[in-house]
Amino acid sequence: MIINRKFILASSSPRRRQLLSLLNLDFEVRESGADEESDLPDRPADHVSVLSARKAAAIAPSVGDAVVIGADTIVVLDGRIIGKPASEEDARRMLADLSGRTHEVFTGFTLVDRPSGRSVTEVERTSVKFRILERQEIEAYVASGSPMDKAGAYGIQDDFGAVFVERIDGCFYNVVGFPLTKFYLTLQKFLRLR
Length: 194
Hints:
By secondary structure, the chain is an alpha/beta fold. Helices cover 35% and strands 27% of the residues.
């Protein structure tokens, strides 16, 4: 499908930028500056829905004719949302908690059409099983700096992070940070309704 629209990605995530570029869309990146801390629901799907919509809404008023894309990804273990690590010690703790266990990755994305203001929000969930991690593996991964900008302190597409995952059930790209197939199908439908 050839898409002749301009897009604004309201995210500075290099992984989202890389994944979105696979679709050959004409897009630019603008940091949303949206509040990512206050008044967020506890339920994971609602949490990412609210944040993705908030990010898109922060950019939309400044856009003339384009589709704004907001997105947010979280890791959930035992019903508890795990964000990005605040420190190396926090990253070690997160990885130790995930070791040998299954967690879920949720990504919400929101599309806002400008100038109409029409919007849609979708959520993807993927189940991820970690193998049991050795303490020295965790130490080496944290020392590499790789986990520090990632929800759950790992990247499935990264060096050591790739070999921590034993199996996944669901969309691989969702775990990377953006559910490409669901996004593409949602976008096709969204643009047809314009």
